[in-house]
From TrEMBL:
Keywords: Repeat. Pfam families: PPR_1, PPR_2. This is Pentatricopeptide repeat-containing protein At3g61520, mitochondrial-like. The keyword Phosphoprotein does not apply.
Length: 762
């Protein structure tokens, strides 16, 4: 169950994290923690205060030569004196400077009947505290440290921490580490390790920090990590690079586990941050382990961390573990929020599991499991969009009505946009327009997404003029379109070969103050290229470059195709060269376009050169490229070359030929009266599992008719029937001219009986 820290404990953690100061030593009386964490001296009780003030005055007068030491000695060292190491410490802290404090220390050491080093150490610690508040304290502290070693005065634990922390803040990390190495092992407690860890983490010394943390976890059982260790380490782990050394996700997970074994856990924010990062790095399993390690070890878990893991699981499509986690949250009394259910519903809708999303929605409303989380407009919109995406627009409409009646939520622009998009994609443009009208009546204001959705829906279903009319109406009403609106309309006009209207819209964009984006340029260039208007396409390219955009591979391919179709091979090569200079690599579409054009022109030497270049770049020729080459060779009467390429396909290139290639070869062989070879190809098709179609049979029937191979024709007719390959009008034309003439009308009638004659697309 999530148990938040009390405000006092939060304050304590915060102060400890910032200051990393020592706990009160046994020799000093207890005072409230917030005073103890401060570097200010702790005020003594009232009866000691007058003694301290008098001692300070007497010592300063002694320093100035205005009194003897007798009175001070009696005050501090007589048998009736209440003086103690704590009193000496307070006197030291009230002196004017650390140098004066050193003189006071020497006075105590020379005059005190007791030379007990521990008492002297606490006094010397006060000098450290005094020096830490002076300008450039690190130099003075180092000097005091050397003085303590010279005079054989051991540092206290607190003095050591103060020195290390001060050097660390001055970015003198190496000197701080040298001090730590020289310290007596008895001074190295958990609090000192925390100070050193803080210094190392702040300075980016992650290797050293991890080594020291490992020392705490494994070799120093007397110095276990505590929650301050966690407050230092966990924020530091969010950094990715430390002087060139990155921390892997596995290392972070390992540290969380090791610290968790000591009851040290990241706070809710850091745990959520870690789980989110692991999920983004596609390490969902490790994120699951981290959360459950904290859960099993008794760490504090809050709903935000669970939500982070649910998001990752949902993105990964792991709905089984999403449900498991929801069950575990219930067992631990972690109350899911509207965000929790929103994550579930969103991921289920995106995976088209709308019925499960609706079930989760019912649980959210408290219909079952005793939960009651108030839904918001985002939840409703997610569900409505999910329903529309799977074609259940009417249910989406019903849910919008339910939204009004059962909750405090009112439909907004997004709600209507989801429904309008759903009806547009279903081809129900009239219903979409009715929703748009209803939206306006309810004073739910449409936005540019509403406009673009309706324009796209109309264009997709052949209502381009209606889309333009609607667009003009919206402009008059003050709703301006954007680049998406214009590119949608331009693409629609290009698809119906109305390039002039597309150009008109392009020019209108500038008048309306709407800057074309790259997609607008690409759309227009593609339309112009398909229409063969390459001069206009070149002009648009110049405008695209002036606007700061670059051509992408798709646009280059469209242009190369356009120049090839208009027989401007030099321009196509110019585009190819420009591509290389721009660092855009040619792809299989580029080479397919060039090879198809070159082979059609009979320029086979250049064609094979381009093909070799393609293979050198690591691109594998496709069946379409082989088909284009074979077809070109056949058209040029070079059947042998075509057959050689055909044989190379299965051997060296290992690209299996399809029925289109077989049809090209069989048709060409039959035309050259090489019917036997054509028949062998048909047998090969059967062996390789390539199904012949009506075009294959028609080519063979023509060839067999020329040779009058009736028995072979009858075999093929039987095979057509077995394979349920319907004859077309060409089949009947060939057979009706041939079979009755040789007295085989009965065979023809039997063949066509029961067939539904199809129209050939060949």
């Amino acid at each position: 169950m999530s148990v938040p820290l009390s405000s006092s404990k939060q304050s304590t953690v915060f102060l400890l994290h910032l200051c990393l100061l020592k706990p009160q030593t046994p020799a000093i009386p207890y005072y409230p923690l917030h005073r103890h964490l401060s570097t200010e001296p702790i005020p003594p009780p009232q009866d000691e205060d007058s003694l301290i003030n008098e001692a300070v005055q007497l010592f300063q007068a002694l320093e100035d030569g205005h009194s003897s030491s007798t009175q001070l000695h009696q005050l501090l060292f007589s048998s009736s004196s209440p003086s103690s190491p704590a009193i000496f410490r307070q006197i030291t802290l009230r002196l004017a400077s650390s140098s004066q404090a050193i003189e006071f220390f020497d006075y105590i050491r020379s005059n005190s009947p007791s030379q007990e080093l521990t008492s002297l150490s606490f006094t010397f610690q006060a000098i450290f505290e005094l020096a830490s508040r002076e300008p450039h304290p690190q130099n003075k502290l180092l000097e005091l440290y050397r003085t303590s070693k010279e005079r054989n005065i051991p540092l206290t634990v607190n003095g050591a921490r103060l020195l290390v922390r001060c050097l660390g803040r001055a970015e003198r990390v190496d000197e701080a580490l040298a001090v730590v190495d020289e310290l007596d092992p008895s001074l190295k407690d958990t609090h000192l390790y925390n100070v050193v860890l803080d210094v190392l983490c702040r300075s980016g010394r992650i290797v050293k920090a991890l080594k020291m943390l490992d020392e705490m976890l494994q070799t120093r059982a007397d110095c276990p990590p505590n929650y301050i260790t966690g407050a230092v380490v966990f924020p530091a782990l969010s950094r990715r690079e430390w002087f060139g050394r990155s921390i892997s996700d596995e290392e972070i997970v390992g540290l969380v586990s090791k610290l968790g074994a000591h009851g040290v856990f990241p706070d809710s924010f850091k745990l959520t941050q870690l789980i989110t990062k692991l999920c983004w790095n596609k390490k969902i399993g490790r994120a699951w382990d981290v959360l459950h390690d904290v859960m099993k070890a008794g760490g504090t878990l809050e709903v935000a961390s669970c939500n982070a893991l649910l998001t990752g699981l949902g993105r990964d499509g792991d709905f089984e573990r999403m449900n498991t986690l929801m069950t575990e949250m219930k067992e631990m009394d972690i109350q899911p929020t509207v965000v929790t259910f929103g994550i579930l519903i969103n991921r289920m809708c995106k995976s088209r599991r709308v019925d499960e999303a609706l079930e989760a929605f019912e649980k959210m409303k408290g219909v079952s499991d005793g939960l009651s989380v108030e839904s918001n407009v985002i939840t409703y919109n997610t569900l409505i969009d999910g329903l529309c995406k799977v074609g259940r627009q009417e249910e989406g409409l019903t849910l919008m009505d339910q939204m009004r009646s059962e909750s405090k939520c009112m439909p907004d622009t997004v709600t209507y946009n989801c429904l309008i998009d759903g009806f547009c994609k279903a081809g129900k443009i009239q219903r979409a327009q009715e929703l748009f009208d209803r939206m306006n009546k309810e004073r739910v204001f449409p936005n540019v997404i509403t406009l673009n959705t309706l324009v796209d829906g109309m264009c997709r279903h052949g209502r381009v003029n209606s889309a333009v009319q609607f667009f003009d109406e919206m402009r008059r009403a003050g709703l301006e379109g954007n680049a998406v609106t214009f590119s949608t309309l331009m693409n629609a006009f290009c698809n119906v070969d109305n390039i002039d209207k597309a150009m008109e819209l392009f020019n209108q964009m500038s008048k309306d103050g709407c800057s074309p984006d790259a997609i607008v340029y690409y759309t227009l260039i593609s339309g112009l290229s398909r229409a063969g208007r390459m001069d206009d396409a070149s002009s648009v390219i110049s405008m695209l470059k002036e606007a700061g955009f670059c051509l992408n591979i798709v646009c280059y391919n469209v242009l190369i195709g356009g120049f090839c179709r208009t027989n401007k091979l030099d321009k196509a090569y110019e585009m190819l060269k420009e591509m290389e200079q721009a660092g855009v690599k040619s792809n299989i579409v580029t080479y397919t376009t060039l090879i198809t054009y070159l082979s059609k022109t009979g320029n086979f030497a250049t064609t094979h050169g381009v093909m070799r270049k393609m293979i050198k770049q690591g691109l594998v020729p496709t069946v379409f490229i082989f088909g284009a080459l074979i077809h070109a060779y056949c058209l040029n009467g070079k059947i042998e070359e075509a057959m050689k390429i055909f044989r190379d396909m299965s051997s060296s290139s290992k690209v299996p030929p399809n029925n289109v290639i077989y049809n090209i070869l069989i048709n060409s062989l039959c035309k050259k009266n090489e019917v036997e070879l054509a028949l062998s190809l048909m047998d090969e098709m059967k062996v390789k599992g390539v199904r012949p179609d009506v075009i294959t049979y028609n080519a063979m029937f023509k060839g067999l008719r020329e040779k009058n191979f009736l028995e072979k024709a009858f075999d093929l007719m039987d095979r057509m029937v077995e394979q349920a390959c319907n004859p077309d009008y060409i089949t009947l034309e060939v057979l009706t001219e041939w079979l009755p003439a040789v007295g085989e009308t009965g065979k023809l009638k039997k063949f066509i009986q029961g067939y539904e004659i199809s129209v050939s697309a060949a």
